[in-house]
């Protein structure tokens, strides 16, 4: 009877320690004019085998980003794009209205995610040199 308990406890310990191994470091945050949502630029670091990335999520104004960006994800395309101070491609945010966000990002960035609308917020993208 003890073997199944030991096996179950070992499995729980292993699974409890699992994570995707990535960390999000916030670069900048811009809260919408009505204060209901924040756009957050962050660098997602998944270890030595991955390059720097720039990611953007729309989240609650008092929240921190978790997981990959839900709005925008890009890297420098092996140096084709200008880097920000954090290592990923440069980007900036500007709210045009409470439900319209402008995202400017470095020309040449290799884009993996670029959503036009998230959670009722429309997003316009502009590549900038």
Automatic annotation (TrEMBL):
Entry superkingdom: Bacteria
Signal peptide region: 1-23
Keywords per UniProt: Signal
Protein name, per record: Lipoprotein
């Amino acid at each position: 009877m003890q073997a199944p308990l030991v096996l179950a406890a070992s499995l729980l310990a292993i699974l409890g320690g699992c994570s995707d191994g990535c960390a999000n470091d916030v670069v900048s945050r811009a809260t919408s004019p009505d204060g209901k949502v924040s756009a957050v630029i962050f660098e997602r670091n998944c270890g030595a085998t991955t390059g720097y990335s720039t990611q953007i999520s729309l989240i609650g104004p008092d929240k921190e980003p978790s997981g990959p960006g839900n709005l925008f994800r890009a890297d420098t395309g092996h140096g084709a794009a200008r880097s920000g101070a954090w290592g990923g491609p440069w980007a900036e945010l500007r709210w045009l209205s409470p439900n319209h966000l402008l995202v400017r990002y470095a020309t040449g960035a290799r884009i993996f995610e670029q959503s036009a609308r998230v959670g009722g917020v429309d997003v316009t993208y502009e590549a900038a040199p």
